[in-house]
Please model this.
Amino acid sequence: MQRYGVGIGDEVVIEIVETEQPTRPLPENAGRRVHVGSLTRMFGFMVAVNDEAPITGAADDLYVLTAVVGASGVLGRLATPARRNQAQDYRLSLGGLTSRQLGDRDEHLHWLNRDDLAVGDRVTIRIVETSQASVPAKRSPAES
Model:
């Protein structure tokens, strides 16, 4: 079974990047920061595993964005496995929650959900300002 992952010796790189690429102007009083020249800002995370193409989680109506790298299983020499032959599990997720105008239903957006990570993989997370985002792999309605 092939696995990909984050493990001992892996690095998580966070780089703050700002671009001047224009996006469509938002209506006045939209509560968003605006560049000089009516350029709107859209912030997100660009996430890549090893040398794979990065995925950019961002949206014009995004309010919450998370990139989570997690590990479970026997991670320390004194840890006791919860079940026999339990391996370490390494996970990576990228998701968010919208904050839309009254009457528009918010959504949970899911760009990435991997549980196939392994020791030796490299995960890179960059905080970016961008005008383009990856299409979410999954959307689900937010609870009211």
